[in-house]
Predict the structure.
Amino acid sequence: MKTIKKILKWLGLFLLLFLLYVVGSIVYGTVTEYQPEDVIALDIEQSNANTVIKDSVLTAALWNVGYGGLGAESNFFLDNGGFFRSNGDMVRATEEMVNKNIDGALSFLTAHDSVDFLLLQEVDANSKRSYYINQYEKYQEKLPGHSSTFALNFNVKRVPIPMLEPWNVIGKTYSGLGTFSKYTPKEAERFQLPGEYGWPDKIFHLDRCAAVHRIPHENGKEVLIVNTHNSAYDKGGVLKKQQMAFLNKFFQEEYAKGNYLIIGGDWNQCPPGFAFDTFAKSEENAIGYSQINIAEDFLPEGWQWVYDASVPTNRKLNFPYDKEKSFTTLIDFFLVSPNVEVLETK
């Protein structure tokens, strides 16, 4: 009997300590929550002499670099439903993996430094998950001829998941959208996208945004380069619908002024009419991965969704990459206004 009481006593103490930990995490997250204004002016760094677009042909590249932590060797505990425990899956990649992935991104940028606009998502600048490496600065160094902006969209002092492993949590995150341009924008702004999770979930999630860069054209109009990263882990696509309605209105208003729009991003949804399981090797391959499409009538006729339909851009992270088994799909692509002609996509 004494043994049972002792066990119950220790169990009660453990539950009390766990409750205090959970409450403390929520209180700390609430007090330190990042609450950005609807529109924030972005610092334009590494300005260059090109301030007006005169060329008729422009190039752009797009990549969600996965904060340097999502290389081929990685999996991710949340893709296996591990909110409370990691169950042996990766909460973060090893430092060696992160450095290898960043080196790969740097090699890509060096090889494509002639591209006019490079739009990157999930660029960490000071995060535990990527060992506090300032990736934005590293990318800047490789692109000295490009002006650059950083739009913060994930600023949490401590992400406390998995909840039952306080020694192994995601931790501090400071990450955003990195945009690099051969032209110096006359203005660059961060637009907060609408919609958020309920409390307390929202204090640990990304604050989704779009980074808008205005570059004068020699004909008096503006070329808008937009870098966006829409919501993921959005059951039923509720947040995506709010964000897309906001973007729809913004895009059409700017096009009505005669401006040219080139929008690129990780939309976390497939283009209109594109089957999410296009690349699935079997039905089993797609189990547990639900995806929605952007509506066919999202924008009037003439707007163009730009992507290479033969190449996936995203994979499910339930296990390290396996070409024959990993589920892949396409959620990263461009959108251009009717007054922009697309010459080539790959």
